[in-house]
């Protein structure tokens, strides 16, 4: 059980270090689980977005909220983050979230600045291209400065070669976030967009990164084709107390059906492997992306 006092102590230590200038076929149903509880005794959950058109619960507990379109999904992402962040801060004094770039981080521009005490929010990144820092820049432009999150609480990926950058970011994450019994950091919330091919973050189908799933890895170095980056592992995603994935458009319908049914070959649909081991997993979809889900 992750107790609030442990979470708070870890984050206070992390913030202190940041201010002082320190460097910064595993189908979901087969993954072992432990039970995380909030201080009030309730299991972590993802609240149903107010604009939900319909809801479906998959056999393994993942929930699918169907919204009108991509704009409604964006609004639902912001609404969910606001509710979860407020709940976490009230119950444990802090809120940690791991975010990607792209449409998800753009959706966070809709976060109301008065929705929670943003001084208690810590932001980590699901993936980042070394030297470009698009995810970091996107977060700063979208919601960090608007909401007043202290820059010391925004955990930017460093510079250097992928292996050393990954090691440093892993150390930062392990220092700042409470761990489960496997030594994996437990985020309060992981946000992920999905690609038509089923990739999440920088974990792509049949890649070396997806094949590290279940091996206790935290941050993975990527050095391919001259592109150097790092990625949070599938283990980090699945250790999170809550996970929200988004999928919009008819082009994602085959992927959504495969990911939620489990009908795919090993490693071919990373999004289908994303499931909180001890909390809640929610998919925010539009009507086009779920059109074939039950057919």
Structural features, described:
With 295 residues, the chain is an alpha/beta fold. It has a single domain, classed as 3-Layer(aba) Sandwich (Rossmann fold), CATH 3.40.50.1360. It is built from seven helices and ten strands. It has a seven-stranded mixed β-sheet with strand order 1-2-10-9-6-3-4. A three-stranded antiparallel β-sheet has the order 5-8-7. The N and C termini lie far apart (39 Å). The N terminus is likely disordered. InterPro entries: 6PGL, Glc/Gal-6P_isomerase, NagB/RpiA_transferase-like. It comes from Hemiselmis andersenii. One of its GO terms (biological process) is carbohydrate metabolic process. This is Glucosamine/galactosamine-6-phosphate isomerase domain-containing protein.
Spatial ordering of strands, largest sheet: 1-2-10-9-6-3-4
Number of strand elements? 10
Number of domains: 1
Mean pLDDT across the residues is 90
The parts where pLDDT drops under 50 for at least 5 residues are 1-6, 16-40
Percent of residues in beta strands: 15-25%
CATH architecture: 3-Layer(aba) Sandwich
Query: What is the number of helices?
Result: 7
Return the string of H and E elements: HEEHEHEEHHEEEHEHE
Q: What is the global morphology? A: globular
CATH fold-level name = Rossmann fold
Structural class: alpha/beta
Rg, Å, rounded = 18 Å
> Between the first and last Cα atoms, what is the distance in angstroms?
39 Å
Helix content: 25-40%
**At the first level of CATH, what is the class?**
Alpha Beta
Q: How would you characterize the largest beta sheet?
A: 7 strands, mixed
InterPro entries: 6PGL, Glc/Gal-6P_isomerase, NagB/RpiA_transferase-like
Organism: Hemiselmis andersenii (Cryptophyte alga)
GO biological process, one term: carbohydrate metabolic process
Protein name: Glucosamine/galactosamine-6-phosphate isomerase domain-containing protein
